[in-house]
Amino acid sequence: MRAADRRELILRAAGELFLTKGYSGVTMEDVLTEVGGSKATLYRHFTDKAELFQASVEALCDEWSKPVQSFTPPSSDLGETLTALGGHFAALVLTPQAIALHRLVTAEADRMPGVGRAFFEHGPAAGQGVLAGYLQQAHDAGEITVTDPTRAAAQLYQAMLGDAQMRLLTNSPHKPNDAEVRASISAAVRVFLHGTTTARA
Length: 201
Fold this sequence. Notes:
Elements (H helix, E strand, L loop, with lengths): L2 H19 L6 H8 L3 H7 L3 H16 L1 H4 L8 H16 L2 H14 L3 H10 L1 H17 L8 H21 L8 H17 L7
Helix pairs in contact: 1-2, 1-4, 4-8, 6-9, 6-10, 6-11, 7-8, 8-9, 9-10, 10-11
């Protein structure tokens, strides 16, 4: 097996173990049991569990975000594009696996800041970067006015999914259903593009 393939195999196995058992519940020996091979090979790729954990977080985020990174606008209409992109975000961040990873990283981020940084850069920042790109295009085309597309993307994302994501992260008694998520995305896009102020003569 090529070194790159072996590394990917290790990351996949480790990611599943961390999501199931948490950081403290996994040992390097557990990973080795899953993937086989020698300790020397495992430690050649990752010097310790902390490095393996961070690499696993990055790999999971990169894998899950592929649909967002390859997103194709459904039409030339900006509202439809933003709404469709919101749906891609929802399919990524509201899954049980994504919620589990978010909780896991949050629990360990104070002790391992690099893990929190890796999660943000490969997860939220990457997705919001895609959204910011479309906002910048719309700004350049004269459709909207945004002085800071990155900040606007972060604000729009939170308006679309922040409540649903927080409910799931905190195990709220009321879990958002698909219809509620779609309604939240549509309302957020509508307010973002048109605002809420009543026009005055």
